[in-house]
């Protein structure tokens, strides 16, 4: 019996037992869909994290308070950075392009009857270069505003809409903790990064925030939460980091453990990428178990099928079908169920990826390798788990099979 006839008989048999065939494929369908969807979500998460890190700016170093050991503790490290540290970095590290210190505080912003809690972003004009912010209308505050502690504010686009409801806010006065601020600009939309909605921020001079809102809290100068540093080019990142660390050790008179940590943007991206990669691998392994379960299901159903079709096997062998013919047909049936289930599961998995992309911020990350791997594994699973039942069917004695039937 040739291969074409074996395929024809296998399709005929499977079509005659639609319910059994569907239930047999179910495990493979679920397994394939799970693996492809999981790997797709993982790829989407990787792209999302990469875009989030890149949206922070380009060629960035982040200087934060506390030693690397303190960063891993569940409590906040003491704030040891001051505004003069940022100025020293800008003046004394040659490979640095711009430096933007940052001081944050959460306060309520008032305009007439509107009262909105928001994050105050105290910084300097260099933040426009360092963090890729753009002014949509009006202007940003200047170095003179920082020097004079001027009560001016540039609003994020969402915050401006919430407070003024479409009205032009430029020139209007808002109040923050009892202090009147002049609105001088509205920022272009930037979106959210790592849970911070930059369109809901209120940008004010760092000196104004420290002296008129939160108060001075450090005897060594105007305290800041952290410092963002933009380096001239990617090749100078390691040199700039080394120079910044040495400069701050001299300024802080450090002889033992550092009271600050310098983070590289690339290191941050690698850390986040390794986390998402590990989670994806874990979820894919769990989903892969479904393929194994599906293969075992195929074997069980095929074994039952051998018992149910004992008479058919006996008749076929009695009229001349060889062991190889029986083995080939049962193997083909198992492979067909696996490949067809894999194809359906692939379609469901790809559809699930697009659905998740629509409902979340993740991009649709469809991996051709994942699809090929899942489909190939499902086909191999059907072949491997179909061989044992096929061999059992091929070894049946035709006389015993007819008599047992």
Textual characterization of the structure:
With 405 residues, this protein is of the alpha+beta class. It has two domains: 3-52 and 271-404, no CATH class; 79-258, no CATH class. It has 14 helices and twelve strands. It has helices at residues 3-16, 18-55, 68-71, 83-92, 127-130, 143-147, 157-164, 206-214, 237-251, 265-308, 310-318, 323-359, 368-394, 398-404; strands at 60-65, 96-111, 114-123, 135-138, 152-155, 173-176, 179-187, 192-193, 196-197, 202-205, 226-231, 260-264. The strands form two sheets. Strands 2-3-10-5-7-6 form a six-stranded mixed β-barrel. A two-stranded antiparallel ribbon has the order 8-9. Helix 10 (265-308) packs parallel to helix 13. The chain starts with a helix and ends with a helix. Belongs to the ABC-4 integral membrane protein family. It is a multi-pass membrane protein. This is FtsX-like permease family protein. The chain crosses the membrane at residues 21-42, 278-305, 326-359, 365-388.
């Amino acid at each position: 019996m040739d291969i074409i006839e074996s395929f024809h008989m296998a399709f005929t048999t499977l079509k005659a037992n639609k319910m059994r065939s569907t239930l047999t494929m179910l495990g493979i369908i679920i397994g394939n869909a799970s693996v492809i969807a999981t790997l797709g979500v993982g790829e989407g998460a990787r792209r999302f994290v990469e875009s989030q890190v890149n949206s922070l700016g380009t060629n960035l170093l982040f200087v934060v308070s506390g030693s690397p050991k303190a960063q891993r503790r569940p409590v906040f490290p003491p704030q040891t950075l001051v505004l003069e540290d940022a100025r020293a970095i800008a003046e004394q590290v040659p490979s640095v392009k711009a430096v933007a210190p940052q001081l944050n505080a959460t306060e309520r912003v008032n305009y007439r009857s509107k009262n909105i809690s928001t994050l105050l972003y105290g910084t300097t004009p260099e933040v426009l270069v360092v963090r890729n912010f753009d002014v949509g209308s009006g202007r940003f505050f200047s170095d003179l505003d920082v020097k004079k502690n001027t009560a001016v504010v540039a609003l994020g686009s969402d915050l401006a809409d919430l407070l003024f409801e479409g009205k032009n806010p430029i020139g209007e006065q808002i109040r923050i903790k009892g202090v009147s601020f002049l609105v001088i600009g509205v920022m272009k939309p930037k979106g959210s990064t790592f849970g911070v909605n930059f369109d809901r921020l209120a940008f004010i001079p760092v000196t104004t925030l420290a002296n008129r809102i939160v108060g001075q809290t450090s005897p060594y100068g105007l305290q800041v939460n952290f410092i963002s540093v933009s380096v001239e080019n990617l090749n100078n990142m390691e040199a700039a980091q080394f120079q910044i660390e040495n400069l701050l050790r001299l300024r802080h008179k450090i002889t033992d453990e550092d009271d600050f940590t310098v983070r590289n943007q690339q290191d941050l991206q690698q850390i986040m990428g390794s986390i998402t990669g590990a989670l994806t691998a874990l979820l894919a392994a769990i989903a892969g178990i479904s393929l194994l379960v599906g293969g075992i299901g195929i074997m069980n159903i095929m074994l039952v099928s051998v018992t149910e079709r004992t008479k058919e096997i006996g008749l076929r062998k009695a009229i001349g079908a060889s062991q190889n013919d029986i083995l080939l047909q049962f193997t083909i049936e198992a492979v067909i169920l696996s490949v067809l289930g894999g194809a359906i599961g692939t379609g469901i998995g790809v559809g699930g990826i697009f659905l998740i992309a629509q409902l979340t911020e993740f991009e649709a990350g469809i991996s051709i390798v994942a699809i090929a791997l899942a489909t190939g594994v499902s086909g191999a699973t059907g072949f491997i788990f179909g061989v044992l039942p096929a061999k059992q069917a091929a070894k049946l004695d035709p006389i015993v099979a007819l008599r047992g039937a």
